[in-house]
Design a protein that fits this description.
Blueprint lengths: L15 H5 L10 H4 L30 E2 L2 E2 L3 H9 L2 H10 L6 H7 L2
Antiparallel strand pairs: 1-2
């Protein structure tokens, strides 16, 4: 378990790798095959939406996994991430506090 924030119901906020069970987190079961996901190590988005590293802003990070495929740049994955169940999960949890995607992208510069 990590040190993620707690939501308004008292539940721990999940990071993308916990929600999706992709196995690409540090020490994960798929890291040898697919590599460590950059969302798990990107400290520029640490604590965004109460997540660890970029675990709750992964939709703006290049190289994340979607549908078993590693995706490249933000522009390549934009449509897919907008329809992702994890993105919807974070959007619902954060409500009005969801940071705009453009602001998250600026944080990566």
């Amino acid at each position: 378990m990590n040190d993620a924030a707690i939501d308004s119901t008292g539940a721990r906020k999940l990071n993308c790798w916990e929600f999706k069970k992709c196995g690409r987190e540090l020490g994960g079961v798929k890291t040898f095959e697919l590599g460590v996901c950059p969302a798990t190590t990107n400290l520029r988005l640490d604590n965004v939406h109460g997540g660890k590293s970029a675990g709750r802003g992964c939709w703006v990070v290049a190289g994340t996994l979607c549908g078993g495929v590693v995706h490249g740049t933000f522009s390549q994955k934009y449509r897919t991430c907008g329809q992702c169940d994890f993105y919807e999960y974070v959007k619902t949890e954060e409500g009005e506090n969801l940071m705009p995607t453009m602001k998250l992208l600026k944080m990566l510069e």
